[in-house]
Please model this.
Amino acid sequence: MAYADAQVGQREEGIHATAHPSLRVCGARFDLMPEGAAWLADERLLVVADLHLEKGSAFASRGLPLPPYDTRATIARLEALAAKLKPQTLVALGDSFHDGDAEHRMDEEDAARLSRLSRSLDWVWIAGNHDPVPPRAFGGAVMEELRVGPLTFRHEPQAAPSTGEIAGHLHPCAAVRVRGRRLRRRCFASDGMRMIMPAFGAYAGGLNVLDTVYDDLLPGFDFHAWMMGARTVIPVSARRLEAD
Model:
């Protein structure tokens, strides 16, 4: 992976990917999008995790002002991906809403855009810890988990082995040093048996994949962090990563 590792260090505006990189989980091939989504082309299924809609307004209500545009930016990225890929199904892996009151704080225009999008395809809301009962106003099916062939889509990853699991919750990110420069990015994390998705939400943070929280999920260093750039996603061996 020396070539791939080196690519992370390039200026992002200089990367010109001709195709989206892919990884396999229990034989199922996912194309990885630099926006932070995964595309299961064989099923025409798009996966995103941890949208955390209305996180900005939640912080503002506690006296921590943030620009109130995170929901609009997140929905716009979803719209663009749906227009480009034309999925039949979209699976949102939980924590789609930052809290139980998020839908009531949402701008009317943003709510209308989300409703149009969610009703334009088969939408599955996986229940998360922030939104155990996702709002019904936006349509779609609400599930604890979804099984598709060898894959299980759920919010919180379970201790290994959990074969075929596609999960979110942890907001994985990774850090690598290239030519003396330390780069830290959101990432997909996979050992080929499971994949932990990056947070898609504009204001979502990240937990380094070398944190001890991942010890029971991705044992040892036999996995890769697929680090997100502006135009592509680059696999980096866990042995090349740095802790925070």
Remarks:
- The radius of gyration is 17 Å.
- The helical segments are 2-8, 55-61, 70-85, 102-105, 108-118.
- Residues 2-242 form one domain.
- The longest strand covers residues 181-190.
